[in-house]
Amino acid sequence: MALRILKQSNCAVLQALKRNYCSAFELQHKNPIQKQVAKIPKAQYGGRHTVTMLPGGGIGIELMNYVREIFRYAGVPVDFEVLDIDPNSESNDDLDNAITSIKRNGVAIKGNIETKSEQVGIISRNVALRNELGLYVNVLHCKSYPGVRCHHKDVDLVVVRQNTEGEYAMLEHESVSGVVESLKIITVEASERLARFAFNYARNNGRKKVTTIHKANIMKLSDGCFLETSRRIAKEFPDIEHNDMIIDNTCMQLVARPSQFDVLLTTNLYGSITSNVICGLIGGAGLYSGRNYGDHFAIFEPGTRNTGSAIAGKNICNPFAMLNASVDMLNHLGHTQHAQAIEAAIYDTIVVDKIHTADLGGTASTTDCIENVLKHLAEKHVSCYSFNYAPPKISKPLARNPENP
Questions:
Q1: How far apart are CA 307 and CA 304, in angstroms?
Q2: Taking a C-beta distance cutoff of 8 angstroms, is the pair 158, 173 a contact?
Q3: The pLDDT value given to residue 229
C-alpha cells in the first residue's frame, strides 16, 4: 500500500513538472494564432491623453525627443509614458512592461525595436507587440509629395496588410538535423476580418478598387485561402471593384505603373515587400507612417519599420515619418486641430520651403527640418492669437534627460 501511494505521488509530481516545463518547440508553438484581447478603460486625465512611447533603437530615440518638443511647443494635450526595451536583454520583462503600458493607455507611438538575441525564447519585440495586443491590421497610406525627388509623381495608394499571421507567426523548428521548417499560418477568421477592414476602408475613404496580393498559384492552400476569402467578402461590397495579382507581378507593376492601384490587400510578408517598394518609389523610408489597429489598441510608427542605426546621432536622419506617425496618432485620439496644424507645418516644410534631408536629395539636417516645422507652428499661433511666439533655436540633436524624460 505504501509503495502504491509513493508511486502515485511520484506520478503526480512528474505530471506537474511536465505541465510547468516548456520546451523550445512548445514555446514557439503555444500561440499559433492571434489572441483575443479584452477591452479595458483607457488612461485619460483631465482631458489629456497618456500615450505609451517606445523609442526603440537607432534613430528612434532622437526622433521621439523631437516629437515631444513639437507637442510641447504646440500645446498638444498628450502626456507620454516613455519605456525603453533593451535589445540585448535575455528576458522579456521590458516587453511585458510595454504591453502592460499600452493596455493601460490604449495608444502607443514607437520606433523600430531591435531584437539582437538569437535565443529561441526571446521573440521579436515588434511582432510580439502586434500579436499580444491583437493588432491585426497595418495601414500605410502612400501619397507622393510635390517637389520631392522620386520615380513616380501623383501616387496615392493604400496598403492594408495582415499583421499577425503568415510568415511572421514565428513558427519554426528543426525537424531533423540540418532541416528547418517554417510554418506559414493563414486562417479564414483573420483573412475575413482583414478583407472586411480593407473594403470598409475603401468605402469610407472614397476609394474605388481593392487588389488582393497573393501567390496562390504556388501556395495553393495558404494563399489560396486568403484569396478565396477576399473574393467572398468582395461580394458584400458591389460598389468597390475587386481584382487580384500575384506578388512578383505586383512589384513589377508598382515600379512600372503604380497609378493602376488604389487599395492593396496583402498578407504579412507581401505587405512588407510592397510597402518598401512603394516608399522607395516616392521618396524613401523617411516620409511615410504606418498605423497598426486592433479592436481596442493602436500603435503608430514609421511605415517601413527601419531602425536607421547607421545614421543615429549624426543629425542627418529624416524626421518626417515619425512626425507623420504622431499626426496619425492625434487624429486617432480626436485631437484633429493639433493634427491639422502639425500636418500643415510638415507639408509646408517639405513642399513649399523644400527643406529636404540627404535621403530626399537635399542638404538639410534633422534640426533644420524641426526648426522649420516649429517656425510654421509659430506663425499659426501668431495668426490665431496675435502675440509673438518665436520658435526655439535647436543647435544640436535633442538628447534624453534622464532626470526629466
A1: 9
A2: no
A3: 97
pLDDT at residue 214 in the model: 97
Contacts of 126 (CB under 8 A, 6+ apart): 112, 113, 115, 305
Q: CA-to-CA distance for 118 and 90, rounded, in angstroms?
A: 9
Report the candidate in 54, 37, 98, 50 with the shortest Cα–Cα distance to residue 294.
37
Neighbour tally for 5: CB within 10 Å = 9
Q: ∠ CA 262-266-268 to the nearest 5 degrees?
A: 140
What does the pLDDT read at residue 111? 87
C-alpha cell at 376: 510654421
- Residue 295 CA to residue 103 CA, distance in Å, equals 12
SS3 content of the chain, % helix, strand, coil (to 5): 45, 20, 40
On whether the CB atoms of residues 262 and 268 are closer than 8 A, the answer is no
pTM, 2 dp: 0.82
- Three-state secondary structure call for residue 327: helix
Helix (H) or strand (E) holding 172: strand 166-176
Q: CA-CA distance, 54 to 81, in Å (whole number)?
A: 9
Distance separating alpha carbons of residues 329 and 102, to the nearest angstrom: 13
Owner of C-alpha cell 512589384: 251
Along the chain (405 residues), what's the average pLDDT of each consecutive run of 10 residues? 49 46 45 50 69 88 92 92 81 86 94 69 77 93 90 91 86 88 92 96 96 96 96 97 97 95 96 92 88 94 77 85 95 92 95 92 92 90 46 54 42
CA torsion angle for 273, 275, 276, 280 (degrees, to 10)? Answer: 140
DSSP code for 44: E
DSSP, residue by residue, 206-265: T--EEEEEE-TTTSTTHHHHHHHHHHHHHTT-TTSEEEEEEHHHHHHHHHH-GGG-SEEE
Nearest residue to 55 via CA among 94, 90, 91: 94
